[in-house]
Amino acid sequence: MNTQHPLWQLVLFRMRGFLREPAALFWVFIFPLLTALALGVAFRDRALPELAVAVVDGPDADRLAPSLEAVEGLTAQRMSEAAGRDALRRSKVALVLIPGPQPELIVDPTQADGRTARLMVVDNLERLQGRVDRVVVQNRQVTAPGSRYIDFLIPGLLGFGLMSSSLWGLGWALVQMRTGKLLKRLVATPMKRSHFLFSFMLGRTVLALAEILFFVAFARVLFDVHMFGSLLSFTLLGLCGSTAFGGLSLLVVSRAGNAETASGLMNLVSMPMMVLSGVFFSASNFPGWLQPFIQALPLTALNDGLRAIMLDGTPLLALWPQVLVLGVWGLIPFLIAVRYFKWM
Predict the structure, then answer these.
(1) Are both 275 and 154 inside the same structural domain?
(2) Does residue 295 contact residue 158 with C-beta atoms inside 8 Å?
(3) 192 and 217, same structural domain?
């Protein structure tokens, strides 16, 4: 390797500048890990919460409340009908039972727990009336590896971290150089604009490699998140994602003249992807008419690919659609940025 090549010197220039900024190290490495730690503790592997049922005071309440309380997964609370409806409205209970010759169940169809609570309460009421089960089944509880919410969350957090560190770490550095008149000095040096911008993407790739490996080790040690696929494929896809966001970042700040404009543009790019691209929940929850747009986003492609490799063991070659999406988002914005990049 020619260590005197302008591109190599620019990469070294970028890396040295990054290492001299302790705040940058915090936002690239420590902040994503703290986020994962907080969410991991909040959504750690634990038993399902019991569903609360409000039993309206009445003649049969003394009999029904203890019976429901004895059902595994249910808790029963006696209260007035008005108090029960208010508790249902505030999601403090999943169902309100009004005892009587023909019991009445009040549920909120927008609450997912209401359907489960209804089935459990009806089953208990029928047993009280003498129902006998004709089929005896054996329940076998199995928790499959990779099925926890934290297993789903970790790849999404890594994708989000790569997007944030690429957009803000790369873009903000360029804006600071422009506002600090450093770009004005560099434009007089004998270097190509493409070399200058590409050096930022290469520097970002080196940092992304460290970020990915550090994040995988962190997830395994603290949350026992297993890698069912190839670590090499996982790392390569993560680097593809970092490159895609690097090219997008260059385009976003290619003509931003001040920090306020750059900040607004980077938020405009990152916020929709943070919401739509399946960082904290599956992107399939959004309507079907929105799915083509969501699937075309780089963060969606990265998150889906990382989860496929980590949780399902999918080989990288089978993820060519995601790689193609990331490649397009990396190459086209970079070429546009090279053409329209403003030095001052």
Answers:
(1) yes
(2) no
(3) yes
**Contacts with 123 (C-beta within 8 Å, 6 or more apart), sequence order:** none
- Bridge partners (DSSP) of residue 338 are none
Closest CA to 252 of 242, 272, 241, 266: 266
pLDDT at residue number 232: 95
Name every residue whose Cβ is closer than 8 Å to that of residue 274 and which is 6 or more positions away in sequence.
160, 163, 299
**pLDDT of amino acid 204:** 83
Residue-wise over 110-143: b if at least 16 C-beta within 10 A, else e? Answer: eeebbebbbebbeebbeeeeeeeeeeeeeeeeee
Q: Residues 32, 74: contact at Cβ < 8 Å?
A: no
Q: How many Å apart are CA 213 and CA 292, to the nearest integer?
A: 31
Residue 88 is encoded by which pair of tokens? 């249902």
Coil, strand or helix: which one is 68?
helix
- What is the C-alpha separation between 147 and 198, in angstroms, rounded? 39
Query: Would residue 140 count as lying in a domain?
Result: no
Nearest Cα to Cα of residue 231 among 300, 310, 128, 320: 310
Q: How far apart (Å, rounded) are the C-alpha atoms in residues 210 and 227? A: 17
Three-state SS for 62? helix
- 229, 173: one domain: yes
Report residue 301 CA to chain centroid gap.
12
Number of structural domains found in the chain: 2
CB 57 within 8 A of CB 36: no
Q: In this predicted model, what pLDDT tens digit does every residue of 133-170 receive, in sequence order?
A: 777 777 776 666 667 778 888 899 889 888 888 888 77
Number of H helices, E strands in the chain: 15, 4
Q: Are residues 291 and 321 in the same domain?
A: yes
- C-alpha angle 159/160/163, rounded to 5°? 90
Reported as a single tens digit per residue, the pLDDT across 258-272 is 777 878 888 888 888
How distant, in Å, are the alpha carbons of 176, 198, 264, 334, 341 from that of 256? Answer: 11, 18, 10, 15, 9
Cβ-proximal residues to 282 (8 Å cutoff; 6+ apart), any chain? 152
Instruction: Express the helix, strand and coil content of the chain in percent, nearest 5 each.
Output: 65, 5, 30
Domain span at 70: 51-128
